[in-house]
Amino acid sequence: MAIPNYYSYKKIYTSGDMFTLTGSDFYGFAETVDGLAKEVSTGKTLTPKGTYRTDQFYTSYFRDRVVADFDLELPNTQNECLFALNDNFNYELFKFKLDKLRENNTYVYSKLFIPSNKLPFATSLRYASVSSVSATEFEIGISDSSTPAFSANSRFENNNYLSAFGNVVAATAQTNIEPLSGEFSLFAITKTNLLCLTGNNTALTVVEDTTGYESQNNDLSFNELGGITSTKDFLYISDTGNNVVLKYDIAGYSNNDSSLRFRRNYIELVGGFGGATRQTKFNKPTFLAADGSQLAVLDSGNKNIKIFEGTERVKTFLVHRASENAIYIIPDPTIDMDTAIVRVYQTPSSSVFIPYTNILKATTINANSTLYILKETPNGMYELSFGNGSTLGDAPKSGSKVTLTYLAVSGAPSNSAKVFEAASGVTVSGTAYDPIISTIAAAVGGSDKESTESIRQTAPFQYASQNRMVTAVDYSTLVLRNFSTLIKDMQSFGGEEALDPEFGTVFLSILFNADVDATTIQTTKDAIVDLSKQLSVASFNIKFTDPVKTFVECKTFFQFNANLTTLSRNTIQNNVNNKITEYFTENTGKFGQSYRRSNLLSLIDDVSPSILSSRSQTLVQRRFEPTLTAVQDHTLRYAVELKSPDDITYILTSSQFQFKNKTCILRNKLNTNKLEVYNSEDNQILVDNVGSYSKDTVSIVGLQIDNFIGADTFIKLSAIPANESAITPFRQDIVQLDPANTFSRIVDVEPGVSN
Fold it and tell me: 472-483 vs 518-535: helix axis angle to the nearest 10?
């Protein structure tokens, strides 16, 4: 996780070239407080010299860089800095262009620095850890980087320091940023209390003993704490009773940041009750482990470990002049915008903040609304802006501080991650164990930036929905927006439109990508339900209905004149077959996509001048999966009306199956809608009434199938539609080709026919 960029508080050593104090050159550490440069030790105000470097100290870019910040992007483009041919040249324009250039120059200069002026020495780096915890005592270990084993251990009795708080459940420690100080911070939990302490090898001081989620205004209290862990800048606590994991910024404990000294700043919580496949929900979370990019949570009630990907980053800006046009550039293309948290502090040193809300989630907007706008720029980066003090809400005041906290994520590449290996074995009571890891659900929810074409298609619906689930279209729009990497297509409709009307219900039919497994499908459905609870303005029930796949069988015949082409018969026939496959690939397979025979035949005729004409017979096919040897009923609804029975053609025929040791099929009796079991080997009717068909529905009654024939584990039931020229799906219907039952045949023309 990246170091928070609290650069406005970073101490900077000056050697007389930047400031004066009482008329003399100032040597020592300076910091910016409320827009003024002050001496760190005394707080006396410093007078800036008229140097370029002093200007850098006052910009929002000052020291705004981490070691891994390699992707640099100038705040202003070349066109923004150049004069246009039709510009009305005047002083204001000239100054505006110079300001753009200066901002670019300032940005480049700032990238010559990294956030902290106090870097640890690699040869003397020290770490603190809790080596043991019991009901009566705990042990802090201080280790040198050159000495893997603890070189100095200090044992502290709970009776001396923690007796008033009860038994310590778990603890974690972080060293001070001063590498040789030997100072550290200790964070411990009991069942109900968080304890924050500082000290060294000989003494500890209790900084905070709390039962609340936040340092101030504790409206929420811990229920039953189960685990704790920390990285250099962040503290994580699992609240088993409330089924949440809390995250705090603890940089003020370890980096000597005077404004945040010994404070924990609440960032966010993740959780709520949920089963094993609910990836952001828990059932009694306990033990935690974290590194720079991942957090692992032992979800004890679900008997699994949940891992969250993403790197926490914080961008901080100072508001020098309140302006409705103020824009803050975030040169990071990896922002997960859904995780963005914007806070505005009245002054740079203030610990009290006003949370700002994404304008896309606003229910009302007025002059007092605290809203922010976070959007992508044309160059792939992001910009943060606020209201104008009137129609779009309030803007941060001059002298305030703005922080943007977000997750930098990998996007779509993190999806489907399901292979995890333990870095080492586990020793319990002196016995070593090699962990066996079984993944319950693969990673989901990551997505790359939306393509321009996708934005073009969905933007009108996004605008219409206003981030609220009101209509059935809103559900489709917002679900696709949040789960686009997993979903190929989606259809939604109100319960009043269902075949069996259910008022107060929204039906969702989702076509998942082929590589999405069953567990991930269920996880995603659970997440959609959670999303609807957040965004639905009315109390609607959500029901998922599987897509109904209607397969099309095409039996195509075309006239061929070999004299009109140099290609062989086989080549022409292969080209026709490829054209049929191509047509169905491009025009079917999603909700609302239809098959039109005339369009297909036109494409076939255009394959070669040697094809004089073409015709096609169309069948529609549904499939059912009977339980072998069980007597069952099956109801199949077709996407189109079926042809009425006659005395010449069997309207319905099935694939083969084994029935009473015979190879059989289902078919309708000629001139009737009754179904029969027909033995194709002996030309016998084994069962003369096993159901019937009506307008668009087939009802199979009391059928017992002994076994399947071939590799399929289902039965195909093909039917002649009343209208073979078009197959138009309805609601959750999807049309697609059955290549196994599709073919083309050449019909040779009569001798002497040339065209």
Answer: 130
Alpha-carbon gap, residue 661 to 491, rounded angstroms: 43
- Domain of 334 in residue numbering reads as 313-410
Give the other-Cβ count within 10 Å of 477's Cβ.
23
- Out of 546, 563, 587, pick the residue that ends a domain: 546
Predicted confidence (pLDDT) per residue in 133-148, tens digit: 555 555 655 554 443 3
The verdict on 327 and 286 lying in the same domain is: no
If asked whether residues 593 and 708 sit together in one domain, one would say yes
Q: Which residue type, as a one-letter code, is found at position 303?
A: K
- Please report whether residue 15 resides in a domain: yes
Can you tell me the distance from the alpha carbon of 160 to that of 140, in angstroms, rounded to the nearest whole number?
15
**How big, in percent rounded to 5, are the helix, strand and coil portions of the chain?**
20, 40, 45
The reply to whether the predicted model has a pTM over 0.70 is: no
Domain count, the chain: 5
pLDDT tens, 457-516?
444 444 444 444 455 556 666 677 667 667 888 888 877 777 677 777 888 888 888 777
Determine the Cα–Cα distance for residues 190 and 197; give it in Å rounded to an integer.
14
Tokens of 160: 């001396």
What is the C-alpha to C-alpha distance for residues 318 and 33, in angstroms, rounded to an integer? 11
- Kindly report, residue by residue over 215-233, the tens digit of the pLDDT: 655 557 888 999 999 887 7
Burial of 83: CB neighbours in 10 Å, binned 0-12, 13-18, 19+ = exposed
Say if 119 falls within a structural domain.
no
Task: Find residue 508's DSSP bridge partners.
Answer: 492, 544
Q: Alpha carbon of 213 to those of 216, 217, 299: distances in Å?
A: 9, 9, 20
Q: In terms of domains, do 500 and 558 share one?
A: no
- In a domain, residue 658? The reply is yes
- Are 446 and 414 in contact by the 8 Å Cβ rule? The answer is yes
Q: Which positions ≥6 away from 109 have C-beta within 8 Å?
A: 56, 61
Last residue of a domain, one of 344, 378, 410: 410
Structure-block tokens of residue 371: 């809203």
Same structural domain, 587 and 677: yes
Q: Indicate whether 669 pLDDT > 90.
A: yes
